[in-house]
Amino acid sequence: MEKNKFDSALRRQVLSLPQLMKEQYMDLEPKTRTVLSTPEIFNIQRIVLTGCGDSYAAALVSKHAFEKYAKIRTEVVTTIDLARAYEKKNL
């Protein structure tokens, strides 16, 4: 089999993401419904996202989506800042 000149491990990984997302959604969606009740979900006032490296970058993008679609105030904080600076009362 001749390899496509544009074939690479990274390309294959990116192309596999839609299927992975479907599988993850089908597994996680029913589990997430047991975490919070519907009234609790609608009572969420603020979301704090954290991470470092790639997960911090993902949090920055997610902030926009939460604020635009869920209309919930969202903060993004680095993991170290969350551990050092945020008090329990702020969460």
Task: Describe, in plain words, how this protein is organized in 3D.
58% of the residues lie in helices and 13% in strands. It is an alpha+beta fold and 91 residues long. The protein has two domains: 7-37, no CATH class; 44-91, no CATH class. It has a two-stranded parallel ribbon with strand order 1-2. Helix 3 links the parallel strand 1 (46-51) and strand 2 (73-78). The longest helix is centred in the N-terminal third of the chain and has 24 residues, at 9-32. It is extended, with a radius of gyration of 18 Å. The protein starts with 8 loop residues before the first helix and ends in a 6-residue tail after the last helix.
Mean pLDDT: 90
Task: Give the N-to-C terminal Cα separation.
Answer: 55 Å
Major pleated sheet: 2 strands, parallel
Structural class by secondary-structure content = alpha+beta
Task: Annotate the secondary structure layout.
Blueprint: H1 9-32, H2 38-42, E1 46-51, H3 54-70, E2 73-78, H4 79-85
What's the gist of this structure?
The chain has helices spanning 9-32, 38-42, 54-70, 79-85; strands spanning 46-51, 73-78.
Which key terms come to mind for this protein?
91 residues; alpha+beta; two-stranded parallel sheet; 4 helices; 2 strands
